[in-house]
Amino acid sequence: MPKPRVIYWFRTDLRLHDSPALNVALNLHPDCLYPVWTWDPHYVYRARVGSNRWQYLLECQADLSKSITELNPQSKLLLIREAPQTVFPKLFKAWKITHLVFEKDTDAYARERDGEVVKLAEEAGVKVLIKCGRTLYDPDLLVQANNGKPTMSISQVQAAAKKLGPVPRPIPAPTSLPSPGDTSLPFSQSKPAPSPDLNSNHRSTTDESYANLAGPNNDFAIPTLHELGINEATTPHHGGETLALQQLDKILTNKTYTATFEKPKTAPTDFEPQATTLLSPHLHFGSLSVRQFYWGVQDTIAVYHGTPSTPPTSLIGQLLFRDMYFGAQASLGHAFSHTHNNPQCRFIPWHLPSTISPATNRPTDTYTIDSPQAEEWFSRWRDGRTGFPFVDALMRQLRTEGWIHHLGRHLLACFLTRGGCYISWERGAAVFEEFLLDHEVACNAGNWQWLSCTAFYSQYYRCYSPVAFGRKWDREGRFVKRYVPELEAYGEKFIYEPWKAPRADQRKWKCLVGGDGMSIEENGVKVYPKPMFDFGERRDVCLKGMKKAYEVGLYGDDERVLDGRWREL
Ligand code: FAD
């Protein structure tokens, strides 16, 4: 029997340690192993990916490639610039591949893509091996153990997990790797490299024009941001398995922190260092194995002398939340990311008035989907110029650094939806998708549903105040001053409500409050926007709207929602 010739397809698992799928590939004892990354046009051209996440991805790829070469100087990550659906049949033939191995991905888009690839492999006589390693539990098995239903609460995850048994222990990283064979691409054609559009975060090229399959130098190199036509990144956070493992080690070394972590007690206003682990981008790119993280925490707890924290607030609890969203998405597919057709997501007529006039059966205000006022609120929220310093600081942190604390995300999401603007969670999720380093379809959509009280959580009357919430964590406003430096000179009394400061003080502190945040500073006097609305008034309007929507009780898959009859209710 000839020895296997394997393509190992890296996607959600940019690491060598604890990779169950890579382990499967190595257990085949292949003659040659091609470590491949295919440049999926879905992500390159269609998904919203800001420059910070691009840089993080390229860093993960570079680190992985270096580690592969350390284990085998003949090998490295082979970055191929074409869609897997079109390039694999050619690679199977050119490289005489017998096996394709990859980590299971239950994202709705990925399932479709992988289904197509599996079919193509079968047609080419290539055996496909798929192994789960992205979550603690295989999301499909988790759903099965939850009686076939989407996992919508942490207790459901815990009950289902019990049936599935303990999370497997991590597998050590390989100590050697087989070489790839001949990597020439007889079918590859040189095409002109794209001209970069440095003013845009999005690709300026079309799928068609995107260079040579193995890169401009035909060497499977990892591209630079410049080559991709993407703006320079601004994040201080960096990617790669090496950094991920160092960061995890540092956390686990602090045994008390690890064993007694309680999420609600961590401050969203802490920076350098932040209060939580900041491991989410590493988990997203798979540069850190979630099982390695899980067992690191469990082993620390096992030898800890004090009383450890427990789920849902503990670190293990946080990882279970992650699995919960993956399970919900695995079960609901594409519908999970939207309200439309989603049987678990409450329908809220966002943007629409909370009251209908009994006389006319029409909205009592003009708050419609096209309301210019709501549009203005949305863009001011997105740009970090709402006039509420804590909201703006968080949004600016997100835009420049790509990561914000969980409770900061809570405030931003609540403010945009049920606790201020009454704008759909889907629009907020799209903004987070662009800017988050850790953007995960399942976790982003799921958490937005939680915060907007459309699924997972229903206490819509519990609302975050953009003033009191920040003050609770950081009276002096150190966090606000870091990200909204124009308010640097404002003291404790006015830092969360600068509009209340007397005009003379505003002048003295060299920052006047007024306008919509588009004004330009003059003579060294800066301008910070006035709040875009009276928060108390807006909270009442939103509460009434939510109460009504809950009474009507429609879900995204209700016929009356799908055919627009909800307007008559
Ligand atoms: P830690 O508190 O240190 O937790 C450890 C790990 O547990 C995290 O790295 C993460 O993988 C997981 N985790 C913790 N909380 C959650 C949670 N609520 N949901 C899912 N996983 C969790 N997380 C993402 O990974 N990707 C997203 O796209 C994402 N979008 C979000 C959008 C909104 C509106 C909100 C409110 C939360 C979102 N989260 C998302 C969840 C959470 O905010 C981040 O996982 C967390 O803040 C990451 O920081 P950390 O690594 O320091 O977390």
UniProtKB/TrEMBL annotation:
The record marks 350, 425, 448 as: Electron transfer via tryptophanyl radical. Residues 178-209 have a biased composition (Polar residues). It comes from the Eukaryota. Residues 161-211 are annotated as: Disordered. Its cofactor is FAD. GO terms for cellular component: cytoplasm; nucleus. The keyword Glycosyltransferase does not apply. Belongs to the DNA photolyase class-1 family. This is Cryptochrome/photolyase FAD-binding domain-containing protein. It comes from Amniculicola lignicola CBS 123094. The lineage of its organism: Eukaryota, Fungi, Dikarya, Ascomycota, Pezizomycotina.
